[in-house]
């Protein structure tokens, strides 16, 4: 499949909303996301506008959302990267122990899975993490123990399970395993 990987633009909030809602309708969304379709679809346009602005090139630099864009302009996959510093407010899990980025919001449409889209999105996200002006020591993500397909990809891409586990906030479900990639010395 022919696609390009790029950072979203602030004015692309409608596409940001559409791909997020598609992700939340995926059969494994309950394992992969801390959000539900029912909650997300109710959010006002201003929420999606702020989300797109914050994750765009013109945002505050604390997040980036990358998309895989097909030649027809449709978005076939996405990944978001959050910058986490020990002094930051905790978004998920425990406070950051080191300067790091956190991969969230990973989604590839079913019809393009297995075409390399996910590899390209991860390369872009990890490369962005290592290129930050204020360097990070590691890139991390969490994966639910029942999400075997995702865990297998993360290992293949070079992420290593740390053994740390974190409770899923607001859910009565199993713990999630932390995976990380450390900056090469």
TrEMBL record:
CDD domains in the cross-refs: NAT_SF
Pfam name, any one: Acetyltransf_1
Protein EC: 2.3.-.-
Gene Ontology molecular function terms on file: acyltransferase activity
Protein keywords: Acyltransferase, Transferase
Protein's name in the database: GNAT family N-acetyltransferase
Superkingdom of origin organism: Bacteria
Residues in N-acetyltransferase domain copies: 3-182
Keyword Transferase: yes
InterPro entries: Acyl_CoA_acyltransferase (IPR016181), GNAT_dom (IPR000182), MshD_Acetyltransferase (IPR050276)
């Amino acid at each position: 499949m022919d696609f390009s990987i790029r950072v979203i633009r602030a004015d692309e909030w409608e596409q940001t909303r559409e791909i997020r809602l598609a992700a939340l309708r995926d059969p494994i969304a309950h394992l992969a996301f801390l959000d539900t379709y029912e909650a997300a679809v109710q959010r006002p346009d201003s929420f999606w506008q702020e989300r797109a602005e914050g994750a765009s090139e013109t945002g505050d630099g604390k997040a980036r959302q990358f998309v895989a864009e097909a030649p027809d302009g449709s978005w076939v996959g996405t990944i978001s990267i959050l910058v986490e510093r020990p002094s930051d407010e905790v978004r998920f899990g425990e406070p950051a122990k080191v300067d790091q980025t956190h991969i969230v919001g990973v989604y590839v449409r079913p019809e393009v899975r297995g075409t390399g889209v996910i590899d390209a999105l991860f390369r872009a996200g990890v490369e962005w993490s290592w290129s930050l002006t204020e360097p990070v020591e590691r890139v991390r993500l969490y994966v639910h123990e029942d999400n075997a397909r995702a865990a297998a990809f993360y290992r293949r891409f070079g992420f290593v399970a740390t053994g740390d586990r974190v409770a899923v906030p607001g859910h009565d479900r199993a713990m999630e395993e932390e995976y990380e990639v450390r900056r090469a010395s």
